[in-house]
């Protein structure tokens, strides 16, 4: 009884190949529909095909640090750089580690490519430091700077008191009071390094809380000067007098290796004019900023940067601004120091809370750049650009055309071989290749916006190699079926008997290919991973297409007269295959012992 049941079950499965074909048809429709609904109808191209810039950054330990270049810090740096670049709208950028101490950033060609390049190399060590003195950044503009470092001079010729003489002094006529609302802006006596009123201002709620007011009094009594606890040493003071900000080597040397808890000398540039600042220890770090946005102030018709601090940052910022509000210019200024450069030095005239704004002569681009850096914070390591490679769109287009031509030639050769050797079976193979190609195309298109997959030149090579792998699976199946026909079986049972043997071979072969691509993807970095990923994807699709399309389609066609009767162009011509006569059951005559055969 077991045999008939088994036969019935097998017959049932043979009679319904349409289910598998319907399933893969549904998958094709769903993927194609999802592709059009997503608004992405072409795969995302890498920079070697679309054009763009590839930047290789090398991580370095800060002076005095050991073993800072580790996997945790590298992964954190990749995340920050990725969010920083994407914050500019360059969503196609690719950021990944390479080896133990390198990060590769691929920025495709686009409108924000230049901004992204500038921010990729910016380490973004961000600190908020109180200003002690301000002077012109070049000796020619301020000949007295090196001779008298204890006094700071603005380019306009006005001199500010030294930190010692102004410590604890209240605001006088030279310090501006807040204007309408609570915007603390600089008055005529609050000279900026550029020889004009400080353009940036910090803004907060106009009515400080009662606790804030009482804290202000306590802060003023306890520490009238925000930097009194860590006054600059003689070396830092001498450096402030001799530094020439127009000399890049001097600027870098002055800020290299300075700890956040120490005073420092830094330079700032606005409108092409250099200024140098003597700064106290960092009071607030960039990591204390929880969010920053570039906003257009419609009332003043200018771009501003609005900041919000986290819990720790609110306390620190409130404390330091309360102290700065008690000082005279320029000691009521607050320098925002990014990677050793002063990007803004607003003045403060009242205690500020957990939010603030930086206003001034910002363009939309510069406001967004500053907000982007403030939002995503500092990298845990220092990086320097090791290589920068630019690929033009024309070169990328030529490489893409060459890859497509190579793929077309390879596909044409495979089809010619199939037609010559397998005749009518070539139709099944070509249809299977078309289905596999559609699946691969739609999936790679959807993976672009989904996981950031970019089709680069090695990935195209992987797709070309996959043509041979997929065709090999068809050949294995066809040859198994033809072997059964050679044994004298008709086509329909030959297909069902040949399939289990072909299936095992196909699965083993594809498993080896997939394992090789998986290992290659794990142990390599950069563009080679594109080759491994594409090869692995197409290998999986090969299994899907053979099981759900090729085999069911051949099962259906085996019922057609053209194939079942072995037409010369069907690929199953018994004469051409050298088939044996049809297998027939014959009875073997029984020979009894008492009736031997006569001689």
Any overview of this molecule?
The protein has 599 residues and is α+β, with helices and mostly antiparallel strands. The protein has 18 helices and 17 strands. It has helices at 2-14, 18-38, 47-50, 71-86, 113-120, 163-166, 210-222, 234-242, 248-255, 311-324, 364-376, 393-422, 425-451, 457-486, 491-523, 528-557, 561-564, 574-577, and strands spanning 52-60, 94-98, 102-108, 126-136, 152-153, 159-160, 183-184, 201-203, 264-270, 273-279, 284-285, 289-297, 302-309, 334-338, 341-344, 355-362, 382-391. It has a 5-stranded mixed barrel. Strands 7-8-16-13-12 form a 5-stranded antiparallel sheet.
Which SSEs are present, and which pair or pack?
Elements lengths: L1 H13 L3 H21 L8 H4 L1 E9 L10 H16 L7 E5 L3 E7 L4 H8 L5 E11 L15 E2 L5 E2 L2 H4 L16 E2 L16 E3 L6 H13 L11 H9 L5 H8 L8 E7 L2 E7 L4 E2 L3 E9 L4 E8 L1 H14 L9 E5 L2 E4 L10 E8 L1 H13 L5 E10 L1 H30 L2 H27 L5 H30 L4 H33 L4 H30 L3 H4 L9 H4 L22
Parallel strand pairs: 9-15
Antiparallel strand pairs: 1-3, 1-17, 2-3, 4-10, 4-11, 4-14, 5-6, 7-8, 8-16, 9-10, 12-13, 13-16, 14-15
Shape: elongated
Tally the helices. Answer: 18
**Strand count, sense and closure of the main sheet?**
5 strands, mixed, barrel
Oligomer kind = single chain
The helix fraction, in percent, is 40-55%
Mean of all residue-level pLDDT scores: 73
Strand order of the largest sheet: 4-10-9-15-14
Q: How far is the N terminus from the C terminus?
A: 43 Å
Unreliable spans are 1-14, 142-225
User: Could you give the count of β-strands?
Assistant: 17
Which range does the strand content fall in? 15-25%
Structural class: alpha+beta
Radius of gyration: 37 Å
């Amino acid at each position: 009884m077991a045999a008939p049941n088994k036969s019935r079950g097998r017959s049932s499965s043979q009679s319904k190949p349409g289910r598998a074909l319907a399933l893969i048809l549904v998958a094709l429709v769903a993927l194609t529909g999802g592709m059009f609904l997503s608004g992405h109808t072409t795969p995302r191209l890498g920079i070697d095909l679309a054009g763009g810039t590839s930047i290789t950054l090398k991580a370095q330990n800060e002076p005095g640090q050991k073993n800072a270049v580790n996997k945790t810090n590298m992964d954190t740096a990749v995340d920050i750089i990725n969010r920083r670049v994407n914050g500019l709208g360059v969503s196609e950028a690719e950021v990944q580690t390479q080896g133990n101490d390198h990060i590769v950033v691929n920025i495709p060609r686009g409108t924000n490519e230049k901004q992204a390049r500038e921010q990729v190399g910016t380490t973004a060590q961000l600190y908020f430091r109180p200003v002690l003195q301000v002077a012109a950044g070049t000796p020619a503009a301020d000949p007295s700077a090196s001779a008298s470092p204890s006094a700071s001079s603005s380019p306009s010729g006005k001199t500010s008191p030294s930190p010692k003489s102004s410590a604890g002094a209240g605001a006088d006529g030279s310090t501006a009071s807040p204007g309408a609302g609570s915007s603390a802006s600089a008055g005529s006596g609050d000279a900026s390094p550029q020889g004009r009123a400080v353009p940036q201002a910090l803004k907060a709620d106009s009515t400080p809380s009662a606790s804030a007011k009482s804290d202000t009094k306590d802060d003023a009594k306890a520490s009238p000067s925000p930097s009194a606890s860590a006054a600059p040493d003689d070396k830092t003071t001498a450096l402030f007098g001799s530094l020439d900000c127009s000399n890049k080597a001097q600027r870098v040397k002055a800020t290299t290796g300075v700890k956040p808890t120490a005073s420092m000398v830094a330079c700032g540039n606005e409108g092409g004019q250099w200024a140098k600042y003597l700064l106290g220890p960092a009071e607030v770090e960039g990591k204390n900023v929880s969010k920053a946005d570039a906003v257009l102030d419609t009332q003043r018709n200018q771009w501003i940067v609005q900041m919000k601090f986290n819990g720790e940052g609110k306390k620190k910022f409130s404390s330091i601004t309360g102290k700065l509000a008690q000082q005279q210019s320029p000691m009521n200024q607050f320098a925002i120091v990014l990677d050793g450069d002063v990007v803004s030095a607003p003045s403060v005239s009242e205690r500020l809370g957990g939010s603030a704004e930086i206003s001034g002569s910002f363009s939309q681009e510069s406001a967004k750049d500053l907000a982007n850096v403030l939002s995503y914070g500092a990298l845990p390591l220092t990086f320097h650009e090791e290589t920068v490679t630019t690929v033009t769109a024309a070169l990328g287009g030529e490489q893409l055309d060459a890859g497509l031509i190579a793929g077309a030639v390879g596909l044409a050769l495979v089809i010619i071989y199939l037609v010559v050797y397998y005749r009518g079976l070539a139709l099944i193979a070509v249809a299977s290749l078309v289905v596999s190609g559609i699946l691969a195309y739609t999936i790679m298109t959807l993976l672009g916006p989904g996981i950031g997959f970019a089709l680069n030149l090695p990935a195209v090579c992987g797709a070309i190699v996959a043509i041979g792998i997929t065709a090999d699976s068809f050949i294995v199946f066809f040859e198994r079926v033809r072997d059964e026909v050679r044994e004298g079986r008709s086509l329909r049972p030959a297909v069902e008997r040949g399939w289990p043997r072909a299936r095992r071979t196909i699965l083993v072969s594809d498993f080896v290919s997939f394992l090789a691509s998986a290992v290659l993807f794990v142990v390599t970095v950069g563009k080679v991973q594109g080759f491994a990923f594409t090869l692995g994807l197409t290998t999986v699709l090969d299994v899907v297409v053979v099981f759900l399309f090729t085999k069911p389609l051949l099962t259906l066609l085996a019922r057609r007269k053209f194939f079942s009767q072995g037409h010369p162009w069907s690929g199953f011509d018994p004469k051409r295959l050298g088939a044996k006569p049809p297998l027939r059951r014959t009875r073997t005559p029984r020979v009894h012992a008492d009736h031997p055969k006569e001689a």
